[in-house]
Amino acid sequence: MVTTRVFCTTLKEKGFNFFTGVPCSILKDVIIYLSEDPDIPYIPATREDEAIGIATGAYLAGKKPVVLMQNSGLGNSIGTLASLVLLYEISLLLLISWRGYQGKDAPEHLIMGKSMLKLLEDIGVPAQLLSKENAEETISNAVKIMEERSLPTAIIVRRGVIE
Amino acid sequence: MKRYEAIEVITKALKGDELVISANGMISRELFSIKDSPSNFYMLGSMGLASSIGFGLAFSLPNKKVVVIDGDGNILMNLGSLATIGHFAPNNLIHFVLDNEIHASTGGQPTVSNTARLEEVARAAGFQAVKKVSSIESLRTVVSEVLSSAEGPSFVLVKIEKGEREVPRVSHEPTNIKSRFKEAIANRE
To answer: CB distance from A43 to chain B under 8 Å?
Structure first.
């Protein structure tokens, strides 16, 4: 099991020090935890693309940012990922919740749920699936991708993995 | 006042230690042609996000002045950014909106900024200093005021005339724009 505390502490230990995003019920406790942490900022953005813009500014300032969003917000973000983050090689960590996983969810989540991984792959954002056993390894891999390849990278979170 | 003249007034007033984020399209191109600098971040794509990038930067570097040179079409795409900036209210952020009431870079299609009062939106969102100018002289006065003021965030709506100069595209590679901008920050610390 990955607890919210262990997950967030691991992110901080790996150097992530700036958080922004738009909520999802799957990421609810993570966002509450980060918002209450006095050591790091969590900036609630109005849209996912705004969050990516804010994170890009923080990155330019030398921070190591994380953008949290539901996969529905990935749709709002594709243009920004393509014409800002990938274009300038801005290393951001995207923490994306997976609504519509295995086709079992509210109807508004099914199409994005099915296409999310393909969309990320198509535009060239490496993605890893978080599991209860691999949290630290997944975060370490993300850091490696960001540092060695100057890429943004995504960690995909299904319901129930972070408790 | 044309956009080119407005950008000239702003860049001439800069003291040299500010960080500048410019919106995509003609604003970045004219800034590049007037005064290229490593401390300019030319946002080539991601329309709407110049103010968000500027906010992330200003929030993270509270001792640096951050100047955003934005357009009406740009800010209308991301009005939520004004709410976020107003809420966190970094006093080191200065947001210029050059407002010609059209999408000039794509051929002059009208925006709705002839009716939407952007300065009132900024004020309602929580910007501490809000100005509206439409002449070169008043812009000159306001620019020097906001650059030296400790009060902020500032929002300056600059009403400009339509029309641009023939200027080249920004010739730097995007990754070079980024790396020299980061170096410019590091060199000033």
So the answer is: yes
